[in-house]
Design brief:
alpha+beta; 20 helices; binds protoporphyrin IX containing FE; transmembrane helix; iron; membrane
Length: 522
C-alpha cells in the first residue's frame, strides 16, 4: 500500500490550530492569575509550564532562578499541581509561624504512598493526632536531649572504629563518603533498634536508592489525574521493589524485638528498651488509646533509619569537602580542635561545646548545603492570604531553604564559605531566625536536631584531630567537584576520596575509664 504524506496546506492548518490553542491556554492562565489574586508566577502552559525547568536543572536552583524573575512568593502549576514557592525569610515566616497550623500537613506523593505505607510515618503523616503521638514517642524514646546524651557510648565506640579504619588506610586514598555513611547509619541503628541489622549494608544501599527516587518531582506526582502514567513510567515498580526489599529487613528487626519481649518483660530495667520495643507496646493494642499496625511500625523504622542517618552523613561530607577547598578554614578549625583536645587531655564529645569555630563550620556548611534544600513540602489546609495574595486550599507549598540561606539581603558574600559569620552571632537552628532554616521551623521542624548535630560535630572533630587530609592525584583543592545529586536529600554527586595522614592516633587506644586516652603532643 502506498503511504500518502499530508499535503503542505494540511500540515500548515494543523500547526496553526495547535498554535492558536496554545495561545488561548497561555492567555487563560494569565487571566486566572490576575483575577484570583494568586501570587505572581511564571505562568506558561497550564500543564507543561515549569516542568522542563525543574527537570532540566536541580529544582532548588531552578526555583531560585524563577524567584529572581517573579519574586519570593510565586504561584505556579508544576504539571497539574498548584504550587506556591517561598524564597524569602519574610514569607517563610508567614508560612511556618504566622499560618503554621494551616500549612502543617504534607501533600501525598507516590513515594509516601508506597515506601511509607500510605504516609503513616512521621515525616509525611497528615497533621493530626496520629502524627502528634508518633512524634511524641520518638522524641521521648530517641530524640530528646537526655536520650541523645545516653547514646554517647555508642557514638564513641563507632567513632573509634571509624578512626581505626582510616588509620589502616593512612597514606592512601580513602572513600570517606562511604565510611561516614556507615558510621551514621550504625549509630542510628544501635540507638533506635538496639543493634545493627544483619542486613545493615544492604539496608543502607536500599535507602540510598530511595533517596534518589524520592525528590517529589516525578511525572506521576506532577500529573495525579493521569493514573495511566503510573503504569507506563518506571517510578511505581522501582518504589515497589525498594519497599519489598526493605520490608524483609524491617520485618526481621520487628521479629527480633518480639522474640526478646518475654525476657524484657521480666526485667526491672526500662533502660534496655529501644524505640522499636516501645512502638511494639502500641502494636494492635488500643489500651493506650493509640494503636499501631505492623505497617505503621515499619514506616517509622524507615523514617528514623533514613532521616536520622543520611542527613548527618551528607553534612559531614559537605563540611570536609568545603574544608579541603578552603585551606585557611581547615587550618583554623584543626588548630582549635587540637588545642581543645590537648588542653582537656581527652578526646570525647564533652569538649565540643568549647569548639566555637568547629560549631560555626557546621552552621556554615548547613547554610550553603542544607541536606533538605526544599525542606519537606507542606500543603495548604485552608484558604489563606499571604501578603494580600490568596493561597488556595490544597496548594503544595515549597520553602526554598537553600535559596533563603543565600539571600544577599541577609548574608554578605552569600556564596563564600565563611564560618566566621556565625562567631558571636545569635542565629541558631531552632527555627526562630527565618534566614537560616536548615532544620525547618514551626510544628514540623525536624525533631532529630540534637541527635543529628552531635553525629556531625563529633565525627568532624575526630577526623580533624587525628588526621591531616589531602586530595589524591593531581587534583587541585580549588577544583574539587561540588556538583550536587538531587533527591529528598541533596548530597555531593561524587564520593569524597581523600588521603589521610596520621597526626595523632592515640585516641584509638581506649582506657579502662571508657574515655579516650590521649597523649598530648608538642
Ligand atoms: C543534620 C541533620 C538533620 C537535618 C539538616 C535535618 C533536616 C530536616 C528538615 C529540613 C526537615 C523538614 C522540616 C520542615 O518541614 O519544616 C526534617 C524533618 C524530619 N527529620 Fe530531620 N534533619 C536532620 C536529622 C534528623 C535526625 C537525626 C532524625 C531522626 C533520628 C530526623 C528525623 C526527622 C523527622 C522524623 C522529620 C519529620 C518531622 C515532621 O514532619 O513532623 N532528622 N529534618
Amino acid at each position: 500500500m502506498e503511504l500518502k504524506l499530508p499535503s503542505f496546506s494540511v500540515l500548515f492548518t494543523f500547526f496553526l490550530f495547535v498554535f492558536m490553542v496554545l495561545n488561548i491556554l497561555i492567555k487563560r492562565a494569565k487571566t486566572i492569575t490576575s483575577a484570583s489574586k494568586l501570587p505572581p508566577g511564571p505562568w506558561k502552559l497550564p500543564l507543561l509550564g515549569n516542568i522542563h525547568q525543574l527537570l532540566g536543572s536541580l529544582p532548588h536552583r531552578a526555583l531560585r532562578d524563577l524567584a529572581k524573575k517573579h519574586g519570593p512568593l510565586m504561584y505556579m502549576k508544576i504539571g497539574q499541581v498548584p504550587t506556591t514557592v517561598v524564597s524569602s525569610p519574610e514569607f517563610a515566616k508567614e508560612v511556618m509561624r504566622t499560618h503554621d497550623i494551616i500549612f502543617a500537613s504534607r501533600p501525598r506523593n507516590l513515594y509516601s504512598e508506597i515506601v511509607l505505607y500510605d504516609s503513616t510515618d512521621i515525616a509525611f503523616a497528615p497533621y493530626g493526632e496520629y502524627w502528634r503521638q508518633l512524634r511524641k514517642i520518638c522524641m521521648q524514646e530517641l530524640l530528646s536531649t537526655t536520650r541523645v546524651e545516653s547514646f554517647r557510648p555508642i557514638r564513641e565506640e563507632e567513632m573509634l572504629s571509624l578512626v581505626e579504619s582510616i588509620a589502616a588506610a593512612a597514606g592512601s586514598a580513602f572513600n570517606l563518603t562511604k565510611r561516614i555513611k556507615y558510621l551514621t547509619y550504625s549509630i542510628t541503628s544501635r540507638a533506635a533498634f538496639g543493634k545493627k541489622s544483619e542486613d545493615h549494608v544492604e539496608f543502607i544501599s536500599i535507602v540510598e536508592e530511595a533517596i534518589i527516587e524520592s525528590g517529589g518531582f516525578d511525572l506521576v506526582d506532577l500529573f495525579p489525574s493521569f493514573s495511566f502514567l503510573a503504569a507506563i513510567t518506571r517510578a511505581r515498580p522501582k518504589l515497589e521493589s525498594i519497599k519489598r526489599r526493605a520490608e524483609r529487613i524491617m520485618e526481621n528487626i520487628i521479629k527480633e524485638h518480639e522474640n526478646k519481649k518475654p525476657a524484657a518483660k521480666n526485667s526491672e530495667s526500662h533502660t534496655e528498651e529501644d524505640l522499636v520495643d516501645v512502638l511494639l507496646k502500641f502494636h494492635n493494642n488500643g489500651e493506650h488509646g493509640f494503636s499501631l499496625t505492623t505497617d505503621n511500625i515499619k514506616a517509622v523504622i524507615w523514617d528514623i533509619f533514613s532521616a536520622g542517618s543520611e542527613t548527618s552523613a551528607t553534612t559531614v561530607d559537605w563540611a570536609m569537602a568545603e574544608l579541603i577547598k578552603n585551606p585557611r578554614v581547615m587550618k583554623k578549625v584543626q588548630n582549635e580542635v587540637r588545642e581543645v583536645f590537648r588542653r582537656k587531655g581527652s578526646v570525647d564529645e564533652t569538649c565540643i561545646s568549647e569548639m566555637k569555630y568547629l560549631q560555626s563550620v557546621v552552621k556554615e556548611t548547613l547554610r550553603l548545603h542544607p541536606p533538605a534544600p526544599l525542606l519537606l513540602p507542606r500543603e495548604c489546609g485552608k484558604k489563606c492570604e499571604i501578603n494580600d495574595y490568596e493561597i488556595p486550599v490544597k496548594t503544595r507549598v515549597i520553602v526554598n531553604a537553600w535559596a533563603i540561606g543565600r539571600d544577599p539581603r541577609y548574608w554578605n558574600e552569600p556564596e563564600s564559605f565563611t564560618p566566621e559569620r556565625f562567631l558571636n552571632s545569635p542565629i541558631d537552628y531552632k527555627g526562630a531566625n527565618f534566614e537560616y532554616i536548615p532544620f525547618g521551623a514551626g510544628r514540623r521542624i525536624c525533631p532529630g536536631m540534637s541527635f543529628g548535630l552531635v553525629n556531625v560535630e563529633l565525627p568532624l572533630a575526630m577526623l580533624l584531630y587525628c588526621f591531616d587530609w589531602k586530595l589524591p592525584g593531581e587534583v587541585k583543592y580549588e577544583d574539587l567537584n561540588m556538583t550536587e545529586l538531587f533527591g529528598i536529600t541533596v548530597r555531593r554527586k561524587d564520593d569524597l576520596h581523600l588521603i589521610p595522614i596520621a597526626y595523632d592516633l592515640s585516641p584509638i587506644r581506649k582506657n579502662s575509664m571508657n574515655t579516650v586516652n590521649f597523649t598530648a603532643i608538642g
